Amino acid sequence: MAEANTPIAKVNYLRIATEEAYCPPEMLKIYRKILDDRSVDDPGFNTMWGFYMSGTSARARHIITSLQDLGEVRLNHMNESGIDKQILALTSPGVQIMDRDTAVSFAITANDQLAEDIARNPTRFAGLLAVAPQDPASAAREIQRGVTKLGLKGVIVNSHTHNEYLDDPKFWPIFEAAEAHDVPIYLHPNTPSKGMIGPLLERGLDGAIFGFGVETGMHVLRIITAGVFDRFPKLKIVIGHMGEALPYWLFRLDYMHKATVASNRYDTMRPLQRKISDYMRDNICITNSGVAWEPAIKFSQQVLGIDQVMYAMDYPYQYDPTEVAALDNMAMSDEDKKKFFQTNAERVFKL
C-alpha cells in the first residue's frame, strides 16, 4: 500500500473508480469455515484466501482491513487519492465459492447490506449486486430485486463458478435478466479454474500478476464465441485490467476465428453474426483497474472507442495515490479525460 506524498490536484471532472472491492465480515467467516473444513476442492481459493486470512504481512493486513471497511478507513483513502466515488462490488470469488443454498441466501443479505451502506454515503458510493450463478433462476430474480428495489447499478460475477463458465446456456437467464433491466454485468477475475491453474500456481503466476487475466480473458472469449451477444444483442459486459489483454489480440482473434469456423474443426465454434472485435467494441466496456499505464489506455481507446474505456483503481488490492496523479497528467484532451474518469461510468452504470 502506498501513501499520498503530495495533495491530489483539483480537476474539472469527477474521478469515479469502477472496480472497487469490499467484503462483509460475515463472508470472511464463511470463507474461514470453508478453509478450515477443506470443504471445497479449489486450489486457487484455498491458496489465495488461505494467504490473506492468515498472513501477517503489511499487504495482507491492509487488504483484510480495507475490504471490510465502508466507513472512515475507505473514505480517508478515497480522499487521499482524490477519488470522488467508488462503485463497490463483492470481492472475488464472492458467493460463487459457496454451496448453492448458502450462496443464494448470502447474496440477498449482502445486497441488502450494500444498499444500506450506500444510503449512508450516497454521493461517495454506488454498488453492483451479487448473484449466485449456482441457481440461475434465483440469480435472475435477484437482478430484478437489486435493480428495481435496491437501486444497485449492475451485476458482479466473479468469473467461473465451481469451474463452470457462463457460456453454458443454463446460465443464460442471468444474461437475459441483465439485458431486460438494462444493467451491465461486471465480469471480474476469479483464480483460475481447477483445470487450468496447475502450471500457473507452480510459478506463483495464478493471481493478479497473470492468472486472473488469462482466466477472465478466456471466459470473455467463451461468451462471445458461444453466441451470447447474438442472442442478447443489448447486453453489456464490463471487464477490468485493460480488457484482460484482449484489445491487443483483436486482429488475431478475428482472423483465427474466421479460419477456425471455416475449417469445421470444432463443433463448438460456429459462425457468428459479427466479428469478435465488433462485439468487443459494441458489447464490452473495459476499465483500467490495476493498469495505470498511459500507452495501454490510449491504445484501448483507439481500438475500442473513447466511450468504451473507464477508470478504476482496483482498491484495496492496488492502492497508490500517485497512480491517480499520473493519469490526471496523461497527454489527452480535457474532454476525453472527463469521459475516462467520469462520464463513461455515469452512462454505463446510470449514476
From TrEMBL:
Domain Amidohydrolase-related: 95-351
Gene Ontology biological-process entries: secondary metabolic process
GO cellular component terms given for this protein: cytosol
Keywords carried by this UniProt record: Hydrolase, Lyase
Protein name: Amidohydrolase
Domain of life: Bacteria
Gene3D superfamilies reported for this sequence: Metal-dependent hydrolases
Keyword RNA-binding: no
Species lineage: Bacteria, Pseudomonadati, Pseudomonadota, Betaproteobacteria, Burkholderiales
Pfam family, one: Amidohydro_2
Single annotated GO MF: hydrolase activity
